[in-house]
Structures are given as C-alpha cells and as structure tokens.
Amino acid sequence: MDSSMPSTPHASAYPIGKPGQVWGEEEKSLWLNKQVIQRSYAEQVLALILDPASISANTADPMETTATQSNAHPEITSALELVHYNTLAYNTLHQGASDYPVYLFKSRHWDETKPNVLITGGVHGYETSGVQGAIRFLRTKAQHYCQHANLIIVPCLSPWGYETINRWNPHAIDPNRSFVHDTAPHDTAMTQAKAQASKVQLSDVQEAHALMAALGELAVNFSLHIDLHETTDSDNAEFRPALAARDGTSYDNWDIPDGFYLVGDTLKPQAEFQKAVINAVNAITHIAPAGEHARLIGVPIAQFGVINYPTKALGLCAGMTDATYCTTTEVYPDSPLVDDENCILAQVAAITGALDYVIKNR
Ligand SMILES: [Zn+2]
Predict the structure, then answer these.
(1) Nearest-angstrom CA–CA distance, 267 and 83
(2) Residues in domain Peptidase M14 (predicted)?
(3) Residue 229: which H helix or E strand, with range?
(4) Ligand 1 center to residue 127 CA distance, Å?
(5) Which residues contact 194 (CB under 8 A, 6 or more apart)?
(6) How many CB atoms lie within 10 A of CB 107?
(7) CA 108 to centroid of ligand 1, rounded, Å
(8) Residue 16 CA to ligand 1 centre (angstroms)
(9) Distance 122 CA to ligand 1 centre (A)
(10) d(Cα 285, Cα 330) in Å, to the nearest integer?
(11) Ligand 1 centre and the CA of 120: distance in Å?
(12) pLDDT per position as a tens digit, 122-168
C-alpha cells in the first residue's frame, strides 16, 4: 500500500531489474526462478482439513486427490460440507510446484434467518497464522458457530505462496490487489507506469478469481467477511522492495508495527465492530501502538489498533463482498513477545470476536 505520508522515497535496491523500469517478462521469469518450495501444502494444510482415510483410499498423494474423492477431516464438524472449488494449475509453471486443489467449507444447512459469514485465510500464502488460524477455527470453534451463522471458510487461497513463503503468485502478482472484475485495480492515485505494470490478465490471478467465481455461483449476501493476514519483517526486507522494483517506482520507509492491528474499510469503518474485534484479540496478544505521526504502516490511525483502506478500489480480498462488516487481521509474528501458537490463537480470537459481535448486533 502506498503511503500518503511525505517522506524520503527509497530507490529500489532489488537485485532484479533496473531502477525506474517496470519489469517485463524476462525480469518476472528471473524472479520466478529464484523462488523455492520451502514447505508442503499437502502436509501442513491438506492433512489438517481432509480425511486421511479418504486420501489413502484413492492415492497416497493428497495433491492428486480430487474433490469428488475427498471427505472433510473427522476433526471438522459435519455441519460443514467440503467443497473443492478449483485447482490452481502451476505444475508446469515452476519447478517443484504442483497443481494445487483449493477447498472451502460451507454450512450444510443454510438458514435464511442466520447471518452469512465469510472467513478467508492465506490470500498471502507466506502469512502462516492466517492459514493455520482458519484451520484452527474450523477444528475447534466452527461447530459452535454453525448454530448461529451460515459459514463459508476458505483456509488457504494461495497454496503456492504458502509453499514458497511468498506474497506474490508465480506471475509476480499480489493476489490481494486482484479481487477485481476487470484488468486493472481502480487506484486513482496510481501513476500511469504503475497502473500499466499492475495491469494483469484475470487468468494470471487464479487465487483471487477462482474464489470470486465460486462465491458468485453461490450468490450469497454476507453480513461479515473477515480476511486473515500478517504483517511481517519480510515485508520491509523483501516484499516492498520487490514491489517497487517490479513497478519501477520507489517506496516510503516505515516501521513494521509491533503488535496486532486491523484494516477496516474507509467506506464503512464500523468502529464499534472493529473495537469488539480488537478487544477480543487484546485478551490473547498485544495490540500495535500507533507509530510516528499516529500512523500504522504509513496510514493514519482511525481508532486504537485500526486503520482503514478503500478495500474495493484497491482490489483487496476484504472488498470482494458487500458485507456490512468487514475487516482484515494483521498479526505480527516476528514480535519477541509471541510464538506461532499465540499468532494462531490471535487469529481465532479475531474470528470469534467478529462473529460474536455480528450475531449479537444484527
Ligand atoms: Zn497479507
């Protein structure tokens, strides 16, 4: 996200491309060839959401198990049905990558009197607690909340990003700027060069468009959408310099906030709702204090622990629906005060805090 704060812009020192020049296919290919599979989607995600018996009954490899063959893991409530909504075809695109089946869980009995709720994780695959938090919610809390809400839970939108610990997809595109219906984000503040660089084929952002298509078919009006993310030290060390290099721009420096925060929607801030989520997470982990000039990641604080973005204009996942209440969680996993488990529990607390508020206040 670009900061509107005036500060000294940093020229890109990224090892790919030339400063000030937008990447072409050659630079994107150089970038892709540097990416390495570092962990297994099958072992760390699919093994926790699919029934091991249904995997072994068909093939030893869960990646080759298709939806029609798989059942949900027995630890996940039978009030939810497993839906295989797409397979991201990356097998031939990147060495070591696979074709990645992606799944969502949906309330089996849809009750018109209950609020409809969307929970998304792993839009940014490197943000581990977003994925593991959605899975933990599925396995420990979803059964209870199915009594009070119609749930759709998507634990990991970007499996290749999960395996390569990456913000972008293999086409060097950020899925969380790609929840749009045409080929360019609607960011009017963008420079022409940047807008050009951001122009993408919808088919090149399968992570976003597979889910948009699946939800479009379901035609659900949501009361709540919560999208699970992290802000990490690698954002400053790798991903922001890479973004500036790709788009031939510079970037403003800011400190990574030490603690949890939320990103609401500028057009529907829902202050009381955001406050309820912050309070729920505050019982588990520390909330980020405002940084310099009362900002977090360069954006003015709207309220304690909350900044707002124009989510639809920026093509963010949180702007994908017209939900009355929407928020994006930002867990800080690199804080000396937290560990992996605390980050997962913070995500679960954000989900349950949001659900409790919406169930009570609809
Ligand atoms: Zn993120």
Answers:
(1) 32
(2) 65-362
(3) strand 224-230
(4) 6
(5) 247, 248, 249
(6) 21
(7) 29
(8) 23
(9) 8
(10) 12
(11) 11
(12) 999 999 999 999 999 999 999 999 999 999 999 999 999 999 999 99
Span from the CA of 30 to the centroid of ligand 1 (angstroms) = 23
**C-alpha of residue 290 to centroid of ligand 1, in Å:** 19
Give dist(CA 327, CA 320) in Å, integer: 12
Which residue from 166, 54, 57 is spatially nearest to 103, judged by alpha carbons? 54
Residue extents of the structural domains in the chain: 9-360
- The tens digit of pLDDT for each residue in 275-320 reads 999 999 999 999 999 988 899 999 999 999 999 999 999 999 999 9
Residue with tokens 């030893």: 60
Q: Which CATH class is domain 9-360?
A: alpha beta
What's the pTM? 0.92
Q: CB-based contacts of 36: which residues, under 8 Å, 6+ apart? A: 96, 164
Tokens of 290: 């405002």
Residue for token pair 């977090």: 296
CA 182 to ligand 1 center in whole angstroms:
22
Question: Quick one: tokens of 268?
Answer: 């529907």
| CA 125–ligand 1 middle distance (angstroms) | 8
Measure 109 CA to ligand 1 centroid, in angstroms.
31
Distance 155 CA to ligand 1 centre (A): 14
| DSSP conformation class of 212 | H
